[in-house]
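All the exercises in this workshop are built on plain-text protein records. A record pairs a protein's sequence with a compact description of its fold. Backbone structure tokens are a discrete shorthand for how the chain folds in space. Once this layout is familiar, the rest of the handout is easier to follow. As an example, a complete record with its sequence and its structure tokens follows.
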Amino acid sequence: MPRIRSKVKKAEIMTLEGAVKKYMHDGIQVAFSGFTGFNRNPFAFAWETARQGMKNIHVIDRHGSQCTWLLNAVEAISVYETNWMGWGEMAGKIDFNLDRNYKKGSLILEDYSHGAMAMRFLAGAVGSPFIAYSAPLGSDLYNVEYDALGKAGKRDGSDPRIPKKKFIQTEEPFWGDGQTIMLPAARPELAVIHVAQVGEKGTAKWRGVGTIDKEISFACDKVVILAEEIVPEAEMRKVPESNQIPFFTVDAIVECPWGAFPSSVPFYYDYDAPFMRIMDAASRNPDDLKKWLDEWVYGPENWEAFVIKLGAKRLLDLKADSTTGYSTRMMRGKKPAPRMKMPLSVIRSGY
């Protein structure tokens, strides 16, 4: 059945706890924002989801993140459709929680390529049931022998959010260009997007890498925005072309400073690689992982207490430079990043 949006949404401003309680539930299909484990991961939302004990979550994502690392750590994910099973390049790359759950059979892993996952969300965003994409031709990712959801009996039509086929290879009918692949649209129930600023009506924007977050917000039935700050909607309308998410797609707004930690929000704070390495080290041993979860997830009273526990020194070091968008205090190797004296294009060209 085609999905037709007939009503303009009216976003409500909520607490983190309230948004998770209202919009998350056992068995939900959800997509998270950001770029790998380094950029605008809505970690606070996943953190609160773990605390509220939601299970059997179906994540459909463009790649792993802090969010999937944590939800795998508490064994909350039962189906994971993705294009990359890692979670952070500087933190070991492999998500050992995912690896452990997959090997013991508690998680179904469905693999697509990066481009294919982007195309699936694009199809969902524009309301198309499928999209043609020729890049997958020749890849075993699009071999019926490796259809994980099909082998698990999940493509029988009983779940309206799981397509009946992973792909269809067919003859391109319009131009005679040979074979092409038809990919099913991604249609999750919920998108959780972390942004820099959001207006009180829901118009949202960020700076830096955006990947396919705009498409995700259009493809999903419901959208929760986490933001570093809520600003007057009139402020968002001053430069409308800089906004990525329109208010009429948004259901809920959560003001959540530092809510993407330990990933970054460009021009607000940098990613915390040392903290991520501690997470990675803990995930390699179940006993160490339990200690980490008890200390950092179940220990703090709320997200504000989590941020306080991080400490002022850490937060000051991560604070981003308002010109470059990243921290010039945190260590990158043996020394902090250099301060930029002029644009890189000027340095290279001389004018």
